[in-house]
Amino acid sequence: MNYIYYKDPKGNFGDDLNGWLWPKLFGEEKPDNDAFIGIGSILFNGSPLFRGLEHKRKIVFGTGIRPGYKNFTCDDTWDIRFLRGPLSACNFNNTYEYIADAAYALRLTNEFNSIRHINKQYEVSVIPYFKSQEFFDWQALCDKLGFHYISPAAEKGVEFTLREIAASKYVIAEAMHGAIIADIMRVPWSRFVLSTPFTEGGKVSEFKWMDWLHAIQLYNTEATHIPLYRKSSLHKKIKALTGNMVSAEFLVKRMVKDELLNKLANISDYYLSPDSVINSIDSRMFEKAAQLKQEQGRLVERR
């Protein structure tokens, strides 16, 4: 299959999981074959990722809606096996089922058990959102806190990052797939919010988190919010000079840094989805993956 996903030039662990995971389950990529759409919040009208695929079959395997002002629409070339969560399913008036984020298919791989049961090396690990990297020296921040830093860019490869998460006793994540992989590995996690209201947009960020969390039956989680935006005379002046494009907090990093250090140091609430939910996800994803493998095998035989 042709694996379709967003590729950031600097790397992003959540998106890059696609290139590592799907060949292990469904074989090496074949660009001329059916399009396979897995991990990501990439279902939205006008997505550049789907250009040139208008007449190809597009298989949706646990992908999420990216919310906009109009519902995502699709024709009969779309083969939706399941969606990430209930909010994505609502986009289609619940015509299609949801299971959970496609990354939970990691639990179906041959490598999963060896990765999951790696020895614990880190008490607490921190994974920021990949677009938050530019604001601070995260390694230095984590060193000061006595925490372990896991880069969301996954410079040493996806499997290395998976093992880093599995080797942690607790994970503090701004990156959603940092929290998702922690949950998959049964590592308690906590969420913090820093740059995503600006870099990703609050509407998109909250939608995708709630879509995933409700799919795994976590309804009352709380996040640690470190604001980058404050009402101040300096803020108002900078906003006026830059045409409402720049927040003072991006420039007054010391203030944000101190608050970030204080709040991360005092996180005490961690979450994990129920084992019963994980067992259900495993069973349903195994069934969906087995069905797709069988279909792809028949297609190969016909060719």
Structure summary:
It contains eleven helices and nine strands. It is an alpha/beta fold and 303 residues long.
What's the domain count? 2
CATH A-level architecture of the largest domain: 3-Layer(aba) Sandwich
Spatial order of strands in the largest sheet: 6-5-7-8-9
Derived structural class: alpha/beta
Please report which band the strand proportion falls in: under 5%, 5-15%, 15-25%, 25-35%, 35-45% or over 45%: 5-15%
Which CATH first-tier class of the largest domain would you pick? Answer: Alpha Beta
Q: For the residues shown, what is the average pLDDT? A: 92
**Principal-axis shape:** globular
Largest sheet: 5 strands, parallel
**Helical amount:** 40-55%
Radius of gyration (Å): 20 Å
Low-confidence stretches: none
Alpha-carbon distance between the termini?
A: 14 Å
How many helices? The count is 11
Q: From the 3D structure, determine the CATH topology of the largest domain.
A: Rossmann fold
The topology string of helices and strands comes to EHEEEHHEHEHEHEHEHHHH
Task: Please count the beta strands (DSSP E, at least 2 residues each).
Answer: 9
Task: List strands and helices in order, with pairings.
Blueprint: E1 2-4, H1 13-26, E2 35-37, E3 58-63, E4 78-83, H2 86-90, H3 112-116, E5 122-127, H4 138-145, E6 148-149, H5 158-166, E7 168-173, H6 176-184, E8 189-193, H7 196-215, E9 223-225, H8 233-241, H9 248-251, H10 253-265, H11 275-302
Parallel strand pairs: 1-2, 2-3, 3-4, 5-6, 5-7, 7-8, 8-9
